[in-house]
Specification:
By secondary structure, the protein is α+β, with helices and mostly antiparallel strands. The protein has four domains: 77 residues, Roll (Ubiquitin-like (UB roll)), CATH 3.10.20; 64 residues, no CATH class; 48 residues, Alpha-Beta Plaits, CATH 3.30.70; 33 residues, no CATH class. It is 27% helix and 14% strand. It contains seven helices and nine strands, in the order ββαβββαααββααββα. The strands form three sheets. A five-stranded mixed beta sheet has the order 2-1-5-3-4, with helices on both faces. Strands 6-7 form a two-stranded antiparallel sheet. β8 and β9 form a beta hairpin. The longest helix is centred in the middle third of the chain and has 17 residues.
């Protein structure tokens, strides 16, 4: 079994496990959107980014698709990782501000602003519905069409598919089908109604959300001690 080190924890990972599976087994939280345990990993949303490597030779990878390799060193909550995830979430919310799932993630991750012009579309192209239809419903009734800014999810030739069973599984798994609490036409791009009152404290001192006392924002002990010394 490959030995990996994730957030300082050494672990003998089972063969073919991904970094995300290792993190979840160890109780380390990594946000995901396009990932579902019952479907193949895709890495399309980029929210599950983690930092691998040591020193100046590190890079960001999607934890749901990156394998737990021998000697791998992983940081799941460094400042670089957190900032990258927030940037990705800004882009996703600008694409579809009415998604309750995205708004809840923004509140949980402490996102304060969206600097991109909202498009108010009804899809973020996470591919969950496509994989659900193909892998679980065995139908392949929908798929991706076109490329770039013309990318869409549709039936073949934009016609009613004979393979569609009207099961609703694609809507059940869709992260944007649920409209925000404010309704279909909210006033602001970023809701923030469910924002956690606990404020970040540790990341500017320890460069990580995680510490031995728990997740950043749950205690603030290290930051208080730092301030007391001053």
């Amino acid at each position: 079994m490959p030995k990996v080190k994730i957030d300082g924890l050494e672990f003998d990972a089972p063969e073919k496990w991904s970094v995300l599976e290792v993190a979840r087994f160890l109780g380390l939280e990594i946000p995901t959107l396009c990932y579902n345990e019952g479907l193949s990993a895709w890495g399309g949303c980029r929210l599950c980014l983690v930092e691998i490597g040591t020193g100046d030779r590190t890079k960001l990878v999607t934890s749901c698709t990156y394998p737990a390799e021998e000697g791998l060193v992983v940081k799941t909550s460094s400042k670089r990782v957190v900032n990258a995830r927030k940037m990705v979430l800004e882009l996703l919310i600008a694409q579809c501000p009415t998604s309750r799932t995205l708004q809840d993630l923004a509140a949980k991750m402490g996102l304060k602003q969206v600097r991109f012009k909202p498009k108010w579309e009804k899809c973020i192209y996470c591919g969950l519905c496509v994989r659900m239809c193909e892998e679980q419903m065995m139908a392949k009734a929908i798929g991706f069409t076109n490329r770039g800014n013309k990318l869409k999810i549709n039936t073949p030739f934009n016609k009613t598919s004979d393979e569609c069973r009207r099961c609703g599984a694609c809507m059940y798994i869709c992260p944007v089908c649920t409209v925000r609490c404010e309704g279909a036409n909210p006033k602001d791009v970023l809701c923030g109604r469910c924002e956690n009152s606990l404020q970040p404290t540790c990341i500017d001192i320890n460069d990580s959300y995680n510490c031995w006392m728990g997740l950043k924002g749950e205690c603030g002990t290290c930051a208080k001690e730092k301030l007391t010394v001053k």
